[in-house]
Structure prediction request, 99 residues.
Amino acid sequence: MTILYALSIGFAYMNYDSATIAKEMRKSGDYIEHIRPGKETQRYLQSKIRIFAHIGAWIVCTFAVGPAIIGNLTGLEVLRFLFGNIFIVISFIFMIVEE
Prediction:
């Protein structure tokens, strides 16, 4: 669970770089109301990315590890693989929709 949590946080920071987003916003003339462009925007975006990264990591861990824990406690071994199977099905659906 710790590794999954760390990977979720890491991928969130990799996918959303606050410095790049702030720079692109400044270049295109976009802004966040009541926040100055530049470093203030970057700090604001970084705080929001941090919050959503932790929320997302907890959700992923809950759905990934929760069924395994319930499966171990109840003896229903089919629950151990529930998240993996659901993830595979959703991935296939997204690929089909994209095509």
In short: The mean pLDDT is 88.
